[in-house]
UniProtKB/TrEMBL annotation, chain A:
InterPro entries: AAA+_ATPase, ABC_transporter-like_ATP-bd, ABC_transporter-like_CS, ABC_transpr_MalK-like, ABC_transpr_MalK/UgpC-like, Mo/tungstate-bd_C_term_dom, NA-bd_OB-fold, OB_MalK-like. It comes from Halomonas campaniensis. Keywords: ATP-binding, Cell inner membrane, Cell membrane, Hydrolase, Membrane, Nucleotide-binding, Sugar transport, Transport. Residues 4-234 form the ABC transporter domain. This is Multiple sugar transport system ATP-binding protein.
UniProtKB/TrEMBL annotation, chain B:
It is found in: Cell membrane. Keywords: Cell membrane, Membrane, Transmembrane, Transmembrane helix, Transport. It comes from the Bacteria. This is Sorbitol/mannitol transport system permease protein. It is a multi-pass membrane protein. Residues 96-286 form the ABC transmembrane type-1 domain. SUPFAM superfamilies: MetI-like. Belongs to the binding-protein-dependent transport system permease family. MalFG subfamily.
């Protein structure tokens, strides 16, 4: 059982405000991911929760208790560092049992707990080794094991996979998701990699410049980004943005004029828009389709064939548009192609970069990871 | 059939790879060999120039006084005459014990103060940390004679003249800036994450230092300690001015053989040899540790 609340948490280093008033609620057994570009304050926020940094103002509350003044070890948290931060002079067993040794746990009890964690992580054959005799992935697992042994109410992960190679990262991602299920613990995970965020999170917190841009489930952030930043950050490849002009708005949506002169109606709320508003249209590369009658036209600059899919980079005026096409698409570089999109897949952003709210919610926007699981369980039954 | 390409004719294939890279000429390799030879010669010359006084001191110790002041010659019958004379005049072991006591004592004391100081500067720096470090170093720029009178008077009033405790305190103060500087650089090389992981695991500051910091920077701490021992052992200014008989270390022992009646080179050399021998052997035994510690950060 562990819930965490942040209330108006700020952090300043000298005159620099790194965290600018963050409110956040982390529910019991939730997998929360802080994601954002480097320097957005996500690691600092995690360190504040861990107790390695103190908040300049605001409250941290775990299970209803204010813990601002509680030391890092007494908060009942465990942290996995990006560099693993294993103790190089101790064996794997001693590394994992260090917290118990400090807490005065007897040798036998310590051994038992370490063995249990080692079993979960398949580290048993490595217990007598020193960290330098381990591979990157093994070190990572020891670092996680060290956290498990402490039996924390909340696990904190600070970019734990960024030192691993791509294949291992995918494997550890799956392992972490499995671990979350097996340990049934609350986890907070910091990453700059939106794919890690999308695949593992129950709830994603998108941070930029020390403020929360949006909090929501992965599918909600994908289908209903609150602003241009979140829209561009979540999803890979990045969302395309096109300047458009407003032509009209009613309760059916907002009509805009696309580059090239054609009009289209996007089903978003447009009430209160000034008639000369400058708007931006956002469409994800996977939602653009090659279509000889499409409203847009561009010249192919680069083709990246991935086998199953092909990325086309299209030059349209000054913009470079990414389009995910079918793997077998036959076009060549410098071909001029027409393309379009389904209007309900498009987003519109106003002059401040805020998204105009969709008229209808995506059916999966409220989906949580647990719901995925429940569905598969039902299938199996 | 496949390897019969025009470039792999029999002539080039027979040549060693280094010469192949030089286009088969080998002139560059010869030049490089030549340069290595000259560098080696230069290094040996410099080493000899530095080592020569020590060699001469050792040789002179085995001469008679008459031989010692005669035209230098490498051919002489070694004698232990000077060693016997030196031994008869002063109790070497007492001086040696004083040297060991003050150099080891001051080193332990300096480490005891230096480790916490360097810890706080390396891991909890403030705006003034850099300034404090520079200020500490600046105290080493002051000639010791500048503070001789005040320190002498203070020591007299505290009854610390000619005591081992007094000398230990002076040596501790003398070496503390260097000790803190060195420890600071070693500590700074330790990833912060490791100590933070320790803190998350529940380590108090003392446990952090004892279980993590000290074991992990032991090579650095050891080389700092060794340097401090050597500096204290060889220190002469304070030991000559603050001790007379009870607490006098080996530096005072050497000095006692240059007397107003005249210089006795052979005896002086014999005494010097005996004074530097322990630290020389100590330094030789620990040189691996010293080099490892002093290059600890550089090669990481």
């Amino acid at each position: 059982m562990a819930t965490l609340q942040l209330k108006q948490v700020t952090k300043s280093f000298g005159d620099t405000d790194v965290i600018k008033g963050i409110d956040l609620e982390v529910n019991d057994r939730e997998f929360v991911v802080f994601v954002g570009p480097s320097g957005c304050g996500k690691s600092t926020l995690l360190r504040i929760i861990a107790g390695l940094e103190s908040a300049t103002s605001g409250d941290l509350v775990i299970d209803g208790q204010r813990i601002n003044e509680v030391g890092p070890a007494d908060r009942g948290l465990a942290m996995v560092f990006q560099s693993y931060a294993l103790y190089p002079h101790m064996t794997v067993e001693d590394n994992m049992g260090f917290s118990l040794r400090l807490a005065g746990v007897g040798k036998e009890a310590r051994r038992e707990k370490v063995r249990e964690a080692a079993r979960i992580l398949q580290l048993e054959p490595l217990l007598d080794r020193k960290p330098k005799a381990l591979s990157g992935g093994q070190r990572q697992r020891v670092a996680i094991g060290r956290a498990i042994v402490r039996n924390p109410s909340i696990f904190l992960f600070d970019e734990p996979l960024s030192n691993l190679d791509a294949a291992l990262r995918v494997q550890m991602r799956i392992e972490l998701a499995r671990l979350h299920e097996e340990l049934d613990a609350t986890m907070i995970y910091v990453t700059h990699d939106q794919i890690e965020a999308m695949t593992m999170a129950d709830k994603i917190v998108v941070l930029q410049g020390g403020v929360v841009e949006q909090v929501g489930s992965p599918m909600e952030l994908y289908h209903h980004p609150r602003n241009r930043f979140v829209a561009g950050f979540i999803g890979s490849p990045k969302m395309n943005f096109l300047p458009v002009s407003l032509s009209g708005a009613n309760d059916q949506g907002v009509e805009v004029t696309l580059p090239g002169g054609r009009r289209c109606r996007v089903p978003v709320e447009g009430a209160g828009l000034a008639s000369d508003s400058s708007l931006e249209l956002g469409v994800r590369p996977e939602h653009l389709v090659l279509d000889d009658d499409g409203p847009l036209e561009g010249e192919i600059q680069v083709i990246e064939r991935l086998g199953g899919q092909t990325s086309l980079y299209l030059k349209m005026g000054d913009e470079l548009i990414t389009l995910m096409a079918d793997g077998d698409v036959a076009h060549r570089v410098h071909d001029r192609v027409r393309f379009g999109f389904e209007t309900h897949r498009a987003h519109l952003f106003d002059g401040q970069g805020l998204a105009l709210p969709s008229l209808d919610r995506h059916p999966l926007a409220g989906l949580r990871r647990q719901d995925n699981r429940a569905a598969t369980d039902a299938d199996g039954a | 059939m496949f390897n019969k390409t025009p470039t792999s004719g029999p002539a080039t294939a027979a040549m060693p790879p280094a010469q192949q890279a030089l286009g088969g000429q080998g002139i560059g390799a010869a030049l490089a060999r030549h340069r290595r030879l000259w560098l080696a010669l230069l290094a040996w010359t410099i080493t000899f120039v530095i080592f020569f006084p020590i060699l001469w001191m050792i040789l002179t110790g085995f001469k008679t006084e008459a031989q010692a002041i005669a035209t230098p010659s490498l051919l002489f019958t070694p004698t232990l005459e000077s060693y016997e004379a030196v031994h008869a005049r002063a109790d070497y072991l007492k001086f040696a014990w004083n040297s060991v006591y003050v150099s080891v004592g001051s080193t332990l004391l300096a480490l005891l103060i230096g480790i916490p100081a360097a810890y706080s500067m390396a891991f909890l720096p403030t705006k003034r940390t850099k300034g404090t470090l520079l200020w500490m170093l600046s105290t080493k720029m002051l000639p010791p004679v500048g503070v001789l009178v005040p320190i002498y008077l203070i020591f007299r009033d505290l009854g610390m003249l000619d005591t081992r405790t007094g000398l230990t305190v002076v040596y501790t103060l003398m070496n503390l800036p260097i000790v803190i500087w060195m420890l600071y650089t070693f500590f700074k090389d330790l990833p912060r994450d490791i100590l933070e992981a320790g803190r998350m695991d529940g380590a108090s500051t003392l446990q952090e230092v004892g279980y993590l910091l000290i074991p992990l920077t032991l090579p650095g701490i050891a080389s700092t300690g060794l340097l401090s021992v050597i500096l204290s052992w060889n220190e002469a200014f304070w030991s000559l001015n603050l001790t007379s008989s009870q607490a006098a270390p080996l530096t005072a022992y050497i000095a006692s053989f240059s007397s107003p009646e005249g210089l006795f080179w052979a005896k002086l050399s014999a005494a010097s040899t005996m004074a530097v021998a322990p630290i020389l052997i100590f330094g030789w035994l620990t040189q691996k540790q010293m080099v490892r510690g002093l290059t600890f950060g550089a090669v990481k």
